[in-house]
Every structure is written in structure tokens, then in C-alpha cells.
Amino acid sequence: MAEILPLADAISDVVHDGDTVALEGFTHLIPYAAGHELIRQGRKELTLVRMTPDLICDQLIGMGCARKLIFSWGGNPGVGSLHRFRDAVEHGWPGPLELEEHTHAGIAAAYAAGASNLPFAVLRGYAGTDLVAHTRVARVTCPFTGEDLAAVPSIRPDVGIVHAQQADRDGNVQLWGISGVQKETVLASARSLVTVEEIVDELEPRPGAVVLPGWSVGAVSPVPGGAHPSYAQGYYDRDNAFYVAWDEISRDRDRFADWMRAHVLEAGVAA
Amino acid sequence: MTWTPDEMMAVAAARRLGDGTVCFVGIGLPSRAANLARMTHAPGCVLIYESGTIGAKPRRLPLSIGDGELAETADAVVSVPEIFGYWLQGGRIDVGFLGAAQIDRFGNLNSSVIGPYDSPTVRLPGAGGAPEIAALCKETYVMLRQTPRAFVEQLDFRTTVGYGDGPGSRRELGMPRGGVTVVVTDVGVLEPDPRTCELTLTSLHPGRTADEARAATGWALRVAADVSTSEPPTDAELGALRSLKTTAEVAA
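The joint structure predicted for all components is written out below.
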């Protein structure tokens, strides 16, 4: 049964230096608060997995928490570049960042394969692209039809972290709206943490919701506003002004460091 | 009404989308054009975003693919593995509608890096859904502003295959159907030559010239013998286009 823990205790329990950590939320329900706690606790040498690394990965990379990034689209959605990510790739600051770059279809299939306890995923993809020479993808032959297909290794993170709207007191989790790869992330990972907007006495069924039974989740942490500045459907919209402001804040290394010190390092979980 | 080159580009792209078309649409220029189509001549156009929203009917333009406006107005919301697996790979999408940083004469796209991959001068966001969208949809539309930096002789990185190295390439790569059928720019419209697959200027927007199109293209651009002129945007099209605000603009 999922253990309901304060965020700082949950991060301290489930994430260790050097882990492969998937932080998912397909631009909706992004686990910002959990990412900030990783930064506060000074986690190092992480391999981050995130289909759409946006501001939270920019912050983790800029603060030197990541050794490697497995991803398929890295930008500030609707705004432009991720300047800390670019600085790491283009100039090796604050340290070198190894990339394993895929397509959305490839990573999505790799998560599903991981959740299904398979070593690799099969898809019709990557053919003819320059990604083939720069990432982990191979060709496999269908044993039944002889057809030539792409194979990508499963994603099996040490830790999967997602944000959801609600959990009940037994740690059963419900999330709704755009559900991305959150279910696959939790089920593919050896350990998992779900931050939630609120703990409720009883989960009210929502159309199209993803429900994760408490026994399939490692830890649950109540963190109201835990996806801010991204969206949490039914709770808040994206704080677009912050996404726009981040473009300026993150361009300069010193300004970035000052912002992180004031708003993450010296701030508590509630911030 | 007067109009800008970007408005002409959006209108010209929107007109290509037929009513009832099932369209996998990227955020940005394609999303604006596809929603314009839905608001004007193609109310039955089915818009699918890679966040898993099927039949989204946004009343304002999404800020990102995670915008709740897409989920709230969709016929169905499915997971990301499902949208790419059952729906795209399943062969159910008519048109993929993409942007890019660079395009070459065979409609191949770069959205990954400028410069060498391992030491890029500009690290771009990357592939996202584009490679499989362009591989698996029945046809692909591309929209981008025409400049020599974007329309290049040689891509820095081939993120997405249009016609690969030319005729026969797609078949060899296991993509028996599809390919880029139209590229809409702020100057005009390019379409692949049916024999050589090379993008050829087939239409110019009002007031633009073939020489301008050639100057904005990094390869020796072929111009169709019977190049046509786009119809200027109608007042109805411009009214609809200008009424499309982003979620942020509505909130402000």
C-alpha cells in the first residue's frame, strides 16, 4: 500500500544519487514541486527521463543534478528554447550532459514495454532519420511475417515521479484530463512517487480518469500547487507569464542561479 | 481588409484542409491554420494533438499540447502510447500538419540541431512526434516561413523524412504511402513534382514573385510553368483568423 509521506521524506526515501528518474506529465500535471525537492536535496548524477523536458528539467540540468537526459522534445512550450539545457549541450555548463534522444512514438512505446516487463518495444519508426546514428534504436525482423521494424530498449526507471489531482487515504490515485504516460511511468519504475493536489476521503470517479490502485504506488505526497507553473486540470491553468519570464531568467547563468536560490533552495516545499 | 504575409500563409494552409479530414496537428503555425479551417470551410475537420486529444475543438489557441482547452473540448482523450500506437501507427490519420526549422528539396525536415550533432551551434527542441507523423499519415503538410536559412540545400540533421533521397526512398524505408504533399510559406506554395519528388513552386501569394521565392530558397528552386496566384484572404477568413486568441491572450 502506498505510504503517504511529506514530500521531503518521500524524495529522501525513493531517489538516490545516480538513479534513473522519470518525471512525467505531458505538459499537463508536471511534477515541479518534486523536481524542486530533488534540487534542494542536492541529488547528483541523475539520468533524467522525460518526453518533454521543459522548465523543470532546465532547472535540474542548470543546477547540476543530471548526468544524462533521455527525451524526445526539449523546449519551453509555446515560448522557445530551454537556455540551461542548451548551455549544457552547447557549452557543457555546468557539466557535460549526455543525450539519448528519441521520438515521442519511441519513448511512449518504450514506457509501455517497461510497464509490460518487456526488454524492448517494437514500432514503425525512426527509419531514414539521422536519429538512428545517435540513439539506442535497432531493427528487428518480425518472426511471423519477416517485416522489418524498429526496436527501442524499454524504459525501466529506478524511480518514476508524476503529479495527480487526488489520492485517497489508502493511497489510491486518480488523475484526469491529458494523462500522457503517467500510468506507464509508475508501472515501469522500480519505485514511484505521486504528488497530489489533495488527499480526499473518497475518490469521485471522473470520465476518462487514470486510476492507480494504492498497492501499485510507492509513496504519495500531498503537495497543493505541486504542478505550478504548469496546468492541473480542475485546479489551475498554466501560469503562462512565468513560462514567458523563464526565457529571460534562464538566459543568464548568474540570474538563473539567483532565481533558483531565492525561489527553490531557500524556499520550502509550499513555495 | 489588408493582411500580412503570415495571415496569407495561415489562410492558404487552412484552405488545403478538406472538411472531414482527420488531421494530426502540431502546436504553433499548423494549429492556428487547422483551427482556422475548422472555423471556416471545414467544421467537420477532426483535430488530433499528440497529447492524446482526439477531435479537439478549442475555442482559443492552446498554449501547449497540454492545454486543458484541448482535453475539455475533445471527443476522446487517450494516453500518449495509445495516440501514437492505435491511432497514428494504426493508419487512421489522413493528414499530418507540421512545422520545422529547416526543410530540403525533398521535404525532409530538421528540428534537432544546427551544426554538428555532438557540438551543435544551436540545439533545437528535437523530434517530438514529427518523424512518425510524417512516416505514417496518408499525407503531410508543412508550414514554415521561406528564408534561405530554413530552405536549405543540405539539412544539418534529418529529423523527419519527407521523400528521403528522392523517388523510391520512402518505399525502401518501409513507408509505402504518404509524404509531403504541400509546403505553405509566406511567399507561396510548393508541391512535389510527381516524377522527381522535388518541391516545386506551384503558387505565389498575391504581390509575391518567383524571383523572391528563388531568393528565399537555398537550393535552385524549380518553378512550375503554370504557377498560379493564391486568392487573397477573404474578409470572413481574416475575421476568423483574428478572432483566434491564445489562452494567454484570453486570460489577459
